[in-house]
Amino acid sequence: MDEETLKSALVFFQGDRPSYEEFHKGPKLDYLRESDLTYSEFFRGFLLPNYPCILSPEFTESWRSRQHWVKGDGKPDYEHLLEHLGDFIVPVANCDVKEYNANPKHNIPFRDYLSYWREHRENGYSSLQGCLYMKDWHMHRVFPDHGVYNTPLFFQSDWLNEYWDTMELDDYRFVYMGPKGSWTPFHADVFRSYSWSANICGRKKWLLFPPGQEEHLKDCSGNLVYDAQSLILQDRDRYPKYSQCCQPIEVVQEVGEIIFVPSSWHHQVYNLEDTISINHNWLNGCNIDTMWQFLQGELTAVQEEIGEWKNCMEDWHQHCQLLLKSCTGINYCEFYRFLKIIAKNRIAVLEATSGDSAALHSTLPAELSALGPCHSVFDLHRTEDVLTAMLANEDFSRLDPDLLGPHPENLLHEIKEMTHSVLS
């Protein structure tokens, strides 16, 4: 990030956010080639305003996955995949079954899934087992040094995976493989994060809805529709707001292309052919406030759900935090730890850049060096903004301070000292 972008980014968050009116008529997305934009230009043009786009196959043509996972005819190379990955256990969803507004999953050996896939294809894409879709496989966690793809520079400011890599517990990097006809129901991504998805082979059709439009796709009880193309939406008694919904942006993603899906853009995805894709969920300083807003909304929903027990349940607020963790994967305490790790890493980068502690530099994610010190300054400012909002939050103030070392006020002071010393 250059200094001009840093200045414009800090000003950006002091004003009103751009609207999505231009997307309400379903325009085509911007199509980017490697030579089109610098990182700073992408940051200003897409990350800050939260606008989607498509990246050309130039970004993926050197990936080993595109060279080795696919045969000359563009179809998946089952033999290569079986030889190198066949023994691993993978999650498989049944696209023909609806369970709590999603597809039920089970874990099977990858070799069994490949056997199913080939048989399904040979039978004209029909099987008694239904349409099975291997999705959300944490291949990177199994093979951290896999070398089959590289995260494009535009997406390397990735707080979500930086934190989970530090904790060594989880990640939000996935491999998807599925036959023609497999699909993912209508949803927004975890924590309302960004996502990027690269097609290794095959083609996908995406339906994208700008933030806010999902309100028109809820039934009279407030439940989100399962299939955004279902005829049930025509039932005005059940979906009274559907007539106000804009047309989705329809995108056909070709082989090698990467789609960038911004925060809170609900979407539905179809595999038009046998398809392999690599997907990351990620977030950073541009949308960390969106994650904080999402968590507040989820906690409110939990509190309303068990509100009748508030006056008779000991540690009711603590139970709400436990339920929040169960429902979303994170609660307020862990969200603070998340911000703390991000802030501490940026402080270390700036100290190393100034020569105060160069030894720390080698222990930090390489992406932080590639993005430059201005990006670390921006990240600290955004962490400061969200941490300030958290300190003013009544539910956050109820947390046990002994679980929050260093105390949030001390961390906030440390952040302010660092940003002041860099900018002064």
From TrEMBL:
Which reaction is this enzyme known to catalyze? L-lysyl-[protein] + 2-oxoglutarate + O2 = 4-hydroxy-L-lysyl-[protein] + succinate + CO2
Entry's Gene Ontology molecular function annotations: 2-oxoglutarate-dependent dioxygenase activity; catalytic activity, acting on a protein; metal ion binding; sequence-specific DNA binding
GO biological process annotation, one example: positive regulation of translational termination
What keywords would UniProt list here?
Iron, Metal-binding, Oxidoreductase
Q: Can you name a GO cellular component term?
A: nucleus
InterPro entries named among the record's database cross-references: Cupin_8, JmjC_dom, JMJD6_ArgDemeth/LysHydrox
Q: Which domain of life is it from?
A: Eukaryota
Q: Which residues form the JmjC domain?
A: 140-299
Pfam families per the UniProt record, alphabetical: Cupin_8
| Coiled-coil regions listed | none
User: Which cofactors are required for activity?
Assistant: Fe(2+)
Give the signal peptide as a residue range, or say none if absent.
none
| Entry similarity comment | Belongs to the JMJD6 family.
User: What is the name attached to this protein's record?
Assistant: 2-oxoglutarate and iron-dependent oxygenase JMJD4
* Origin species: Scyliorhinus torazame
